[in-house]
Amino acid sequence: MKPQITIGHDAGGAPVAFDIEELLATRLLVQGNSGSGKSHLLRRLLEESAQMVQQVVIDPEGDFVTLAEPFGHVVIDGAAYSPAEVETLARRIRAHRASVVLALEGLEVEQQIRCAAQFITALFDAPREHWYPALVVVDEAQMFAPAVAGEIAEDTRRMTLSAMTNLMCRGRKRGLAGIVATQRLAKLAKNVAAEASNFLMGRTFLDIDMVRAADLLGMERRQAERIRELERGHFLALGPAITRRPVAVKIGPVKSGSVARKDGLIPLPSAAPDEMEALLLDELAGEAAKAAPPPPPPPAPKPEQLEASIARQEADRAPAAEASDTNGEAGEQIQAVIAEMARDEGSTFQSASALYQGFLVRCRQQRLVGPLPDMVAFRRRFAIASAGLERLDEPVRARILQLGEAVPDDVLAPYLAVAAAAAEGLSAPDDEELSRVYGSNSPGRIRRLLDHMERLGLIVVRQDFGGGRTLIVPGIEAVSGEPR
Question: Has the keyword Nucleotide-binding been applied to this entry (predicted)?
């Protein structure tokens, strides 16, 4: 007896069967506009075959995580793991024949694509002894196998197209049966769609999609209008695993997942116009100020400007050094005042002008005489004091300060903190330390700061899928002596 499942019923009420063994050899393409019932169809297919074959679901919207409780699927949060960990998980999934859902809703679109591509490639590259049969379901496949270049980076597009092509073209010999679902055939790469031999075509309205769907189903183009008239949850089916001639199928019920929201009218709020106006306008400015994005970091200076700045700083340091030699005790006292200010809680969150005014007041209170550093020199000395370099050995600290001489004032403190962490062999300072030295608790500002420093060539940022990052500082070696 063949391992078959019932996917639904035809117009006469007769069950429409799906041959799972044939599906493993011939693959499946599902197409339908948003709201046509694609996710419902995939869920029905997965539920009915859950006890027959291993299943791996690439889920960009978190629609299939509810398979875990009733059917034993393991949910893997793609945002929680690094690229190396995702690849290792894929290899273990093949070795242990686990049914899993790779949930990607916690990632941005390009990170979703890269994570899924590396995951599918690792499934494909598993050792021969682990080539067990498995269904690999990719929802929203137009994201992972786009027909044309979009807003994603070119290297990301090449990576994901390679992974999806391997899955659909060469996956059969490795036991992998690709099931891809897309909203529009025109957006799906043709070399991916062409490898499927089974089709379930749902409602679509654009002429180009209707014509392609009719061609795949072997229908005449004048019959393509039939696809536009399909109801939600109804599909035209064709393929060796289903039927040898096109048949209309109403997909059967599912056991997992939430009940879909029914479209329709709902009563409007009963609030009076003045009450509604108050709800909309009260404290609007304050809430908008909280939600407003922080200003972007300043643009990177041109190379000639950076060289001129370095030259000016070197010229300014010569008389400053002579002054410190003639008044060494006062210089030490001034440095002690700056260090004390840097240790004050919340000092780095103040503006440069406020800090400098506080510095002058403290100097007057301690009756310090002699030349005091101007605001520019104070700002750099305060940045150095707040970076916490005193925990490092003298040669390491001297090397970091030497590299910091060419760093602009506005990013000097975070640069020194990152360099100190790199010298200690850490991947990056913790978020709390980076926020303290930069004077901002906004994650968005910290991300833009790191992007700005990378554009200046001061650091190299390597981002993990889950949001973790490694910061590399050129010219800094870890304490162990290994180059960074």
Answer: yes
